[in-house]
Structures are given as structure tokens and as C-alpha cells.
Amino acid sequence: MLHEAAKIDEMMPGQSKAVKIGEAEIALFYLNGQFYAVQNTCPHRGGPLAEGSLDEDGVVICPWHGYSFSVMTGDPYGFPYPIKTFPVKVEDGRVFVEVE
Ligand code: FES
Q: Does domain 2-98 have CATH number 3.90.25.10?
């Protein structure tokens, strides 16, 4: 099911935002004209990925202990478990995230 997570004009390039949709904690990232949604809770110890720093390749570094993850694919770097990604749709200036 699609849920509105943000308006396009409220986010600057390179910015991120934590959004709660139902029970799901989502980190929404805006990078190179695209939006990406992943789980906000780091699989290591639960750090807030939306508060991590994002590089130009879409890799976010968790602010707590520095493991990193691709916000595009969910792939982990230096950590054994990936993060969950969520489909994003942009329509009428609004960003929607698909959460079951
Ligand atoms: S909680 Fe994210 S690296 Fe430890």
C-alpha cells in the first residue's frame, strides 16, 4: 500500500528524513533527483540511518558505529546483513512509499 512520506519541495538534494508509516520506521533519502526509502533502524544496534551521512553513491554511514549500507540496494558494507528497501513513487509533487 502506498503512503505519503514527504512533499518533494520539502527536501533538498542529499537530505534525508525519518518517517513513521504504521509500524514501519522509514528513512527517506533524496539523491541525484531520486528518492530512496529504507528501514531507518540499523541492523547492527538500531542506530537511526536517516541521521547518517550519505555520499554521492548512495551509501549511508550509520551515525552510531559507522557501518554503511546502500540506500539503493540495501547492500551492507562491513556488516553481514542488508537493510530492507521500500519501493518509492513520486506523483503530483508528493513522495509515496510502499509499505505492506
Ligand atoms: S547501530 Fe548502526 S553501526 Fe551500530
A: no
